[in-house]
Design goal:
It is a single chain. The chain is an alpha/beta fold. It has one domain (3-214, 234-277): NAD(P)-binding Rossmann-like Domain (Rossmann fold, 3-Layer(aba) Sandwich). 35% of the residues lie in helices and 16% in strands. The protein is built from 9 helices and 12 strands. The strands form 4 sheets. It has a 6-stranded parallel β-sheet with strand order 2-1-3-4-5-10, with helices on both faces. The protein has a two-stranded parallel sheet with strand order 6-9. β3, α3 and β4 (92-98) form a beta-alpha-beta unit. The longest helix has 22 residues, at 68-89. 50% of the residues are buried.
């Protein structure tokens, strides 16, 4: 029987990974259970497992601008530790990465092989994590890049929109950043499908299909939550200046799935409808969340 280890299991994606692997032999470790920056602890934790799924990450994008060393320890060194341990123990490693490894200046979907060129500290640390993991365990590392995650088990944009609707007549959302809203339920299922298919190691883009601006996503969230979408108004990113620059274009291509004989993830609108039916837009936040 395949034995799975989930690092970062208490986060939003980690919770859905546990659901997707229900009935299997799973060790689920949250931040309090496993410090991925401690190589000895990681080596001990990975022993006896066949698959390691890394859903742990430093995801405070703006804070990373002034705490890049801390972010690097988790997003780069921690990922390398997991890769070294997986290699030593003969396990596969799936590590979850991000669209932020790209510059965001593109106009067509980024391919899995497009050069990394991050524009902020968070992106630099995640890009380093990819490179270190692939170097340490090239034949057994799966990098799954995702973006714009929302789910039941943590704070996220979709649930924030619903919450704001309770206290604001209108909500202003940027319309000049494009990406792919992605339900953690779908991403977890896709990661399990990737492993079950014994697909080739390498880079995959784990985002729901299609594209939307944050404004379009917010309007869709309002609709699915039974709210009037006309309460969402468009603005541009110049009105929301933050410490870390954001990619303007974060649409990812999905050719690696097809090359491996797997179907890419479904359209984001279909995923959101399904997520809403599963109560994802309801307010029951877990403070330990992230990707």
């Amino acid at each position: 029987m395949t034995r799975y280890l989930i690092a970062g299991a208490a986060g939003m994606l980690g919770q859905d990974l546990q659901r997707a692997l229900a009935g299997r032999d799973v060790t689920a470790l949250g931040r309090a259970d496993l410090d991925v920056t401690d190589r000895d602890a990681v080596l001990a934790a990975v022993a006896g497992h066949d698959v390691v799924i890394n859903a742990s990450a430093y995801t405070r994008v703006d804070d990373a601008e002034t705490h890049e060393d801390e972010a690097y320890a988790i997003n780069a060194t921690g990922v390398e530790n997991l890769a070294v341990a997986a290699h030593e123990h003969g396990a596969k490693l799936v590590t979850v990465s991000t669209d932020y490894v790209f510059d965001g200046f593109g106009t067509s979907p980024y391919s899995e092989g497009a050069p990394r060129d991050p524009i902020n500290a968070y992106g630099r640390t995640k890009a380093a994590g990819e490179e270190l993991a692939l170097a340490a365990h090239p034949d057994g590392t799966y990098v799954v890049r995702t973006a714009w995650l929302y789910g039941a088990g943590g704070a996220n944009f979709a649930k924030t929109m619903v919450k704001l609707a309770g206290s604001h007549e209108t909500v202003s959302v940027v319309a000049d950043q494009l990406g792919q809203p992605t339900w953690t339920g779908d991403l977890a299922a896709q990661i399990v499908a990737l492993l079950d298919a014994d697909a080739p190691a390498g880079i995959y883009h784990g985002t729901n299909a299609g594209q939307a601006s944050w404004y379009e996503f917010a309007k869709a969230v309002f609709s699915r939550a039974g709210l009037n979408p006309d309460r969402v108004t468009p603005t541009d990113s110049s009105q929301f200046v933050r410490p870390a620059p954001r990619p303007a274009y974060s649409v990812l291509g999905h050719e690696a799935w097809r090359a491996a004989g797997l179907e890419p993830m479904r359209e984001w609108q279909d995923a959101l409808a399904d997520a809403a039916r599963h109560g994802v837009l309801e307010q029951h936040d877990n403070p330990e969340s992230g990707r």
